[in-house]
């Protein structure tokens, strides 16, 4: 029911309603979910933070009068329950029934599926992350097949990030030194993207093989002369790799473990492609840091699981592997690199393993409560960010954004910050320019647009690169306004002082 004093401008509600109903209908969810456009709230209304169970903003309307309006999509709790039952919610690792909800972000567009035009119906899919009470693996509830998410026109090219390239170069140097790799040593990378990392191995004379499911980036790697198999990694592919070129001295899996739904098949594949004393390093975002630093925006459909050492050790052990060292990294807001070998290999266990394990236990990651509290952390952050943005806009100032990462799509959609708040975003990747952030319809432009705009604030969506981006913008343009950094708590950094305010 729309309260009588909060009626929408004529025609607008109908248009939005048809648009989203069509989207839901195409996904076959219309049987399960009752959708009602039930709340239209003035932006300045003090209760605009969605009082309903899991209500989610789905669009913004320009009011005929001076204020803007929100429209919310609400899914009734009872009907939502029936929708969930129609999907399997069993643990990807141990098959236990999933009962602990870490985050329910409602209906979300596929984050890397950037539309070419504004106002087209998005493919909205529920985004819910659960934690297994048995093995403690945090994971999304399945609604899609991976091949619906990772498509040939996947737009993320690793080589487009300068700091990530440097990270890759340092990694290769460190592994060669630590594990005495020599020219001819076999190095396999899983999710090798555009060859951003294997190019450094190749330069050292290692025998490099990439595995990459996305055609566009696999082609880019081949163009650099790096042998690349276009496929999803798992136990079956591991057999073929070993038959074709033998097992590996070094296996690298950076930011891919989370992207593979079959965690057991992935671990078993790693076991198969390792030489008896071979080493695999598996880098993922660390669930401990994600939770401590409120990084719910790193949850999106492409991330099927979120790893702690507690959960990952169980998965590797079940596949005949063991974690003999771990390193903490600042990449992606706090990552962990597992060093894994066959369980019968000689690699001595590092003290880092016990240290991180103890830190996770101290934080409660082997219990239920810490996970159940996370939803409250997310809501608090959302409230702060919405207050900050609406406050700036109320003063008549303009906001643009920097970057078009998947995490920005989750953040803006969940917080309901759209094109009427943020004029545009910019991204260095030519593959993203000219497109739009899905769900919020914010255009993605070339970075030069910042210099030509009269923006007062820039919201940095890839906040993990905020230092690099602020330095870049300040040196490349006359922009001297503020930067909004949304994580770990929303704050403003001023260009001139680069001091947090
Ligand atoms: Zn489990």
UniProtKB/TrEMBL annotation:
The keyword Transcription does not apply. The keyword Ribosomal protein does not apply. Residues 91-150 form the Methyltransferase putative zinc binding domain. Keywords: Methyltransferase, Transferase. GO terms for biological process: methylation. It holds the Pfam family Methyltransf_14. GO terms for molecular function: methyltransferase activity. Residues 331-488 form the C-methyltransferase domain. Its EC number is 2.1.1.-. This is Class I SAM-dependent methyltransferase. It comes from Sphingomonas oryzagri. The lineage of its organism: Bacteria, Pseudomonadati, Pseudomonadota, Alphaproteobacteria, Sphingomonadales.
């Amino acid at each position: 029911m729309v309260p009588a004093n909060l009626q929408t401008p004529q025609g607008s509600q109908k248009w939005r309603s048809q648009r989203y109903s069509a989207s839901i209908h195409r996904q076959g969810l219309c049987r399960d979910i009752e959708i009602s456009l039930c709340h239209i709230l003035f932006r300045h209304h003090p209760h605009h933070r969605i009082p309903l169970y899991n209500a989610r903003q789905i669009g913004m309307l320009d009011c005929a009068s001076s204020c803007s309006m929100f429209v919310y999509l609400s899914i009734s709790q009872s009907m939502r329950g029936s929708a969930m039952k129609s999907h399997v919610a069993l643990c990807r690792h141990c098959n236990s029934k999933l009962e602990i909800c870490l985050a329910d972000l409602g209906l979300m567009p596929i984050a890397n599926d950037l539309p070419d035009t504004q106002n087209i119906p998005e493919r909205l899919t529920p985004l819910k992350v659960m934690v297994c009470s048995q093995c403690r693996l945090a994971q999304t509830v399945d609604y899609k097949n991976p091949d619906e998410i990772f498509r040939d026109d996947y737009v993320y090219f690793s080589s487009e990030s300068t700091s990530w390239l440097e990270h890759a170069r340092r990694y290769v140097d460190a592994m060669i030194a630590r594990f005495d790799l020599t020219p001819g040593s076999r190095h396999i990378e899983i999710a090798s993207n555009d060859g951003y990392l294997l190019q450094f191995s190749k330069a050292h004379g290692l025998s490099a093989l990439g595995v990459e499911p996305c055609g566009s980036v696999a082609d880019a790697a081949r163009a650099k002369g790096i042998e690349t198999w276009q496929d999803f990694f798992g136990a079956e592919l591991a057999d073929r790799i070993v038959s074709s070129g033998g097992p590996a001295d070094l296996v690298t899996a950076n930011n891919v473990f989370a992207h593979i739904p079959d965690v057991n098949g992935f671990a078993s594949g790693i076991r198969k492609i390792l030489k008896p004393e071979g080493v695999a390093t598996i880098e993922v975002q660390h669930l401990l840091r994600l939770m401590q630093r409120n990084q719910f925006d790193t949850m999106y459909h492409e991330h099927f699981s979120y790893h702690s050492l507690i959960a990952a050790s169980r998965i590797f052990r079940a596949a005949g592997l063991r974690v003999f060292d771990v390193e903490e990294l600042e990449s992606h807001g706090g990552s962990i690199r597992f060093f894994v070998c066959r369980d019968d290999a000689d690699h001595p266990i590092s003290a880092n393993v016990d240290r991180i394990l103890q830190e996770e236990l101290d934080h409660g990651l082997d219990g239920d409560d810490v996970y159940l509290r996370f939803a409250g952390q997310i809501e608090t952050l959302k409230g702060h960010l919405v207050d900050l943005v609406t406050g700036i806009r109320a003063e008549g100032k303009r906001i643009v954004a920097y970057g078009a990462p998947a995490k920005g799509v989750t953040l803006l959609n969940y917080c309901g910050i759209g094109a009427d708040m943020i004029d545009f975003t910019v991204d260095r990747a030519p593959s993203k320019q000219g497109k739009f952030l899905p769900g919020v319809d914010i255009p993605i432009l070339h970075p030069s647009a910042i210099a030509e705009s009269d923006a007062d604030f820039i919201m940095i969506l890839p906040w993990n690169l905020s230092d690099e981006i602020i330095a870049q913008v300040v040196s490349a343009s006359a922009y001297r306004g503020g930067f909004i950094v949304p994580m770990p708590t929303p704050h403003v950094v001023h260009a001139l002082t680069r001091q947090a305010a």
